[in-house]
Amino acid sequence: MTAIDTPSPNGYSRAGHGSTYSEQAILGENAPRQQRAGKPLPFNDERHLAAHQFLVDEAYLLDAQHYEQWLDTLTEDIHYIMPVKVTTALGAGFDTSPGMAHFDENKDSLSRRVARFRTEHAWTEDPPSRLRHYVTNVRTFATDDADHLVVESAELLFRSRGDVNESALVSCGREDLLRNDGGWKLARRTISIDESVLRMQNLAVFL
């Protein structure tokens, strides 16, 4: 293999650019690179409490589908990615499909998705879904930059639409980077889905 087509350890590959999903993703070239440093912060640490409140407040906005307000909680250089999960043998060294993602988004693409919800062409969300985002297992880590925190969480999304279709559940883990910019904002989100085959009809929602 050449340096260009050598897959990364995490399985998501784009011309060998770096070791994280954001570095390798098409829309992640300008994403912030801060990484966790040290052990998780104590649960009574003010930074952890602030990060936890951010996630709870965000879940409310997504449940209520206040997407324009949600966009205001994102930084301008946000990268939002959900690699495609695959089933591999023990010891394969990766569990995502190289170069593939359900979401690979920046602020512009997320804003366009939100704008489309307000048009007559948003058939997947007209009538809108009934949503409930359950967020738990929150752990917060400091970084080398005092204005950034890495936050891990587990999320379960319940989604129901219409009167006939069966409801759907999506379970995932998330690693977020929060930035203190006059208030905490989401600067990066990597979503690790817990299924290789999604049972939801579409992904016209946010995790």
UniProtKB/TrEMBL annotation:
The keyword Oxidoreductase applies. It comes from the Bacteria. Keywords: Dioxygenase, Oxidoreductase, Plasmid. GO terms for molecular function: 3-phenylpropionate dioxygenase activity. GO terms for biological process: 3-phenylpropionate catabolic process. This is 3-phenylpropionate/cinnamic acid dioxygenase subunit beta. Belongs to the bacterial ring-hydroxylating dioxygenase beta subunit family. Pfam families: Ring_hydroxyl_B. Its EC number is 1.14.12.19. The keyword NAD does not apply. It comes from Mycolicibacterium frederiksbergense.
